Task: structure prediction
Amino acid sequence: MLGTLGALGLGLRTVILEGLPTAPPANAIQATSFASHLLVTVFAPAAAVSFAGLVLLALPAYLLAALRGAAELRGGASWVASARHYALGPALGALAPVTVALAAAVWLAATGGAWQQRALATVRLDGTDLQVTLRGLVLFLALAVPYLLLIELPYRFGTRRWRRGWLRDLAERRADVESHVRRLSVPDPDSGIQDTSDENLRAMQYDLVLLQFYQGKLDEVRRTPSGPFSLFGLLGALVLLAATALLLDAGGPSLARMVFGG
Result:
């Protein structure tokens, strides 16, 4: 709040130093232009400081939420696949502002260090040559690495932990049922005759149904994908991020003139 008030005072000081026009506006266009210039000069610094303050206040919360989400995705060994996939929406929502802020900071640092002048390769698209510079590479890493570290890898690690636990538990239960079936099917040691009573047959039938159920669950757990998205979806997202980094790098001169001036 103090920064916003100070920036507002700075804008008013700039208007006072510039002075008001001696002659009134000749028409509505000149009046609108003067009023717009006056409003921008007075309120633009305050708006910029307010936005920066909100970003600085919000980013730690988003970063903490993203880290906690990654920890939950990695450590939730009891989460079934549907519950783990349901958590992707909030995790991606918390990660998006952090990724944008990181990419903006990387772009400013790389542009200030003139990394855009270090060409690594040339890509020809529709008759136009686009240079892949060092700045474009670090921009791609800034966009892709947070997702890989905070979403993709924790999700895969947590899914594999869940799969190992479920496979071990289901295998143990299936082994117990198989052992029980063997005990029911063993002939009597004295008479050598197998028990064919209705109770014994119903128990064996129930155990066989359980064996089929556990086998089906084992196959279902093995078929559960480890990643949050399919391989084609992940590759498509990486291609989209690479194109975004390439476009930001290609439009670097215009952005640099806006940010750094000249």
In short: The chain has eight helices and two strands. The chain has two domains: 1-75, 91-182+189-262.
